[in-house]
């Protein structure tokens, strides 16, 4: 089995339900509180490990109770955490999330230690890239660190996967080192600077990135499934119909499904069909890491 390295974010989500959002200067009583491990990097690493992959993670948490708990949680999920550093004098990445009765949310993200995942820190951990086969990145650490990690990974002959989330424009020097890009429609629009509202627009936007050096793209389309595109081909996959209760981490579990099947030497179409099943289970459950399924929960 190939080894997967995830370089990315680790957060604690602090979620409070409220009847209605507090206005400026107002105090409201919460209707329940939950502390849920998150961060796209950690979510994807956990999802892959629960699907049976051999996963190592590079990232940072702060020297506080959240940081220690998050690192321990990743270890308990069988992830190699020797590349996760506890940084002194900075807080762990925190998302403060308020959800009202109509399911509207407001979110404050403190990047904290995630922003200290610098180029130099990646260089210090280069042996983790050397011993991996597949390197997976997102955009919740500094962009120059993502660019640097992709450059090194390609130089060392690794297969690179980028989930360009949260959505933002990306430079060509990042794009050219990506083997597999997995954006949703919004992310595709921002990166390609083109509209991607229907299948023909998605195809044109994805083609423009393939011309810039990305080998393959999977565009996830929520309940409409996904499209897999590359030089001279385009294939649509339908989602599985389920009663969705919370789509948080749908994309994270989808990417984990693809990466873990590729790590097992499976072809891309099988990997996408598997990932679609994994994501369909995730959306039937609440929360981020709490919703990520184990391999024995997927009907093969
Ligand atoms: P992201 O969370 O990154 O925006 P998407 O919402 O596009 O990602 O979802 C990723 C994948 O999860 C989709 O390609 C699909 O397979 C699955 N998925 C998402 N929403 C649903 C849903 N309502 N029902 C079934 N599957 C879903």
What would your notes on this structure say?
With 300 residues, this protein is α/β, with parallel strands linked by helices. The chain has a single domain (3-9, 39-60, 75-84, 114-293), classed as Ribokinase (UDP-N-acetylmuramoyl-L-alanine:D-glutamate ligase), CATH 3.40.1190.20. The protein is 33% helix and 26% strand. The chain is built from ten helices and 13 strands. It has helices at 40-50, 65-76, 119-124, 126-130, 143-155, 172-175, 185-192, 199-210, 250-263, 268-282; strands at residues 3-7, 11-18, 30-38, 54-62, 80-87, 93-99, 105-110, 134-137, 159-162, 180-181, 216-220, 226-230, 233-237. The protein has a nine-stranded mixed sheet, with helices on both faces. Strands 3-2-6-7 form a four-stranded mixed sheet. It is globular, with a radius of gyration of 19 Å. The chain starts with a strand and ends in an 18-residue tail after the last helix. The mean pLDDT is 96. The site of adenosine-5'-diphosphate (ADP) has 20 residues, from helix 9 and helix 10. One of its GO terms (cellular component) is cytosol. It is an enzyme of class 2 (transferase). Belongs to the carbohydrate kinase PfkB family. LacC subfamily. Belongs to the carbohydrate kinase PfkB family. Ribokinase subfamily. Homodimer.
Taken in chain order, the helices and strands follow as: EEEHEHEEEHHEHEHEHHEEEHH
Cα-atom Rg, whole angstroms?
19 Å
Mean pLDDT across every amino acid position: 96
User: Tell me, what's the shape?
Assistant: globular
Q: Do you know the CATH topology? A: UDP-N-acetylmuramoyl-L-alanine:D-glutamate ligase
- Small-molecule components bound: adenosine-5'-diphosphate
Which structural class is indicated by helix and strand composition?
alpha/beta
Strand coverage percent: 25-35%
């Amino acid at each position: 089995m190939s080894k997967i390295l995830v370089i990315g974010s680790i957060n604690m989500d602090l979620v409070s339900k409220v009847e209605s959002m507090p206005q400026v200067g107002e105090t409201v009583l919460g209707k329940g509180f939950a502390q849920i491990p998150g961060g796209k990097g950690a979510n994807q690493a956990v999802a892959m490990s629960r699907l049976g992959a051999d996963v190592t993670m590079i990232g940072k948490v702060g020297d506080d109770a959240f940081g220690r708990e998050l690192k321990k949680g990743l270890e308990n999920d069988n992830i190699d955490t020797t590349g996760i550093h506890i940084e002194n004098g900075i807080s762990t990445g925190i998302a403060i999330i308020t959800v009202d009765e109509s399911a509207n949310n407001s979110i404050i993200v403190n990047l904290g230690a995630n922003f200290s995942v610098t180029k130099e820190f990646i260089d210090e951990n280069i042996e983790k890239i050397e011993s991996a086969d597949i390197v997976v990145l997102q955009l919740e650490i500094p962009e120059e660190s993502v660019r640097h990690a992709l450059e090194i990974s390609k130089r060392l002959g690794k297969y690179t996967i980028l989930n360009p989330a949260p959505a933002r424009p990306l430079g060509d020097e990042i794009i050219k080192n990506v083997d597999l890009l997995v954006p949703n429609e919004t992310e595709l629009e921002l990166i390609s600077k083109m509209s991607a509202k229907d299948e023909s627009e998605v195809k044109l936007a994805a083609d423009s990135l393939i011309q810039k050096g990305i080998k393959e793209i999977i565009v996830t389309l929520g309940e409409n499934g996904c499209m897999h595109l590359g030089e001279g081909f385009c294939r649509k996959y339908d989602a599985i119909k389920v009663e969705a209760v919370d789509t948080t981490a749908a994309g994270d579990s989808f990417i984990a499904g693809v990466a873990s099947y590729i790590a097992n030497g499976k072809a891309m179409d099988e990997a996408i069909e598997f990932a679609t099943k994994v994501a369909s289970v995730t959306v039937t459950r609440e929360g981020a890491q709490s919703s990520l399924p184990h391999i024995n929960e997927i009907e093969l």
